[in-house]
Each structure stands twice: as structure tokens, then as C-alpha cells.
TrEMBL record:
Residues 36-205 form the Bacterial bifunctional deaminase-reductase C-terminal domain. GO terms for biological process: riboflavin biosynthetic process. GO terms for molecular function: 5-amino-6-(5-phosphoribosylamino)uracil reductase activity. It comes from Corynebacterium haemomassiliense. Residues 1-20 are annotated as: Disordered. Pathway: Cofactor biosynthesis; riboflavin biosynthesis. This is Pyrimidine reductase family protein.
Amino acid sequence: MNERPQSLDPELLIGPVKPPGTRETRLMGIAALTGAAASKGTSSGLGNDTDFALLNALRIWSDAVLVGAETARKENYFGVRTTAQQREARRGRGQAEVPPIVVVTKSLKFDTATQLFTDTRTPPLFAVPASVLGDTEVSERAREIEQAGGVIVPVEGEDVSAVVAALHARGFARIVCEGGPSLNTQLIGASEVDVFHYTVSPRAVQPSELRLFGEADTPSDHAFILEAAHATSDSVLFLRYRSVREG
């Protein structure tokens, strides 16, 4: 067996990129051999340093980091961390210095004292169906979020394609999604994923308390091709798939 490297360059794992301003949505996910997407409640226990570096590199590539509400709460999300060099490089590409975290939500139930609001260089965005903003409780939560520095993004529709369209309308062409299962399922089902970065952890975690994908409301079957496969010396496998779009 060939000796594998201890780490991999995240740019190698990202692979070919389109020019800034070109619309592309990438999905990043990790799962154990048993299909579990978390160990002891979070996904961080499954990966290694290369997986963490890939996550950061995809964030730096992106215009916006998309995440589901439950994942943002459970993983205690905070703003994207960038170096001065990375911010300068982003400016040179015509991107904002720091990509925002965009949380997909219908309830706007968030604690504004958490680090999602307090530990960030750019305000978090909350993509919420415009239809629910007329509700008194939701409207009050929206005001609290805005007072804490958050930005409400009304979405004309309740499906994930409407969320992607709303982000595109705001100039966020490069989108990376970090889960969770429901959001992953919706994006795949709606054929909104262009590139899927799938990390396989060499661990057999049971029970599978959290899966990478949830139950789909509507059947779908979309083809992807394997662009690259790399592994580190600790047997973590990094796969990159690209969507095959017909017509």
C-alpha cells in the first residue's frame, strides 16, 4: 500500500474553480462508515485537520456560508474567521472581505447573546419565508435579531431554491452549504448542488444519531461524477463529486 500523506492541501481538494461572480453551490459533508454524521452530538469529532482546513478553504472561496437553523444552534456557530492576507485576496477577487453566515429558518428563534451575533466580523443573515414575517411573534423576533446586528433576508417562497435565488439576487454567487440533514436533502433534491465534497471518516459510530441526509418529501435521483479521491494517513477519505446536468 502506498504511503499516504499526513495532510492534504485544501486547494487540491477544492479542485477547479470558476471565476468569481459565477454562480456555483457546493455542499460539504462528513459521515462515518456507519453513515453517522456526528459523534457525541457534533460533526467535528469525525474529521481531522485536513477536513477542518477544507471547511475553512471553502468558506474563503465562498460569497456566503449556508447553514440550517438547528445546525447553527447545535454547533454554536460563529462568524467566518479570516486572516488579513485572505481578506486582501478576497478584495482582489471582487468579493467582500468576509463571507456571512446565512441561516435558513422559519421561526427566527435564536438567542442573540450567542457567538453567532457576538463573534463575527460581518453580520449574520437569516433567510426566512416572507409569508411568515406577518406573524406577530416572528416579526418581534426579527426586530430583536436586527437590533442585535443580524440581517433578515425575506424569501419569496418556502423551498430551498427560493433561498438560493434570494442569495443570488443579493450578489452571493458562490455558496457553500454546511448542513444539516434537512437542508442537505432539500438542496440535493432540488438539484441545487453543483459540487459535493464528501468526507468519509474511518470510524464506525453507533447509534447513528444524526445522518448526513434526512428523509426526502419528494423522490429525486440526480447523477454525480467522481472528480477526485484523496486520503490521508489516518484513512480519512476525501471525495469530490460534480453534478451531471442533463439538457
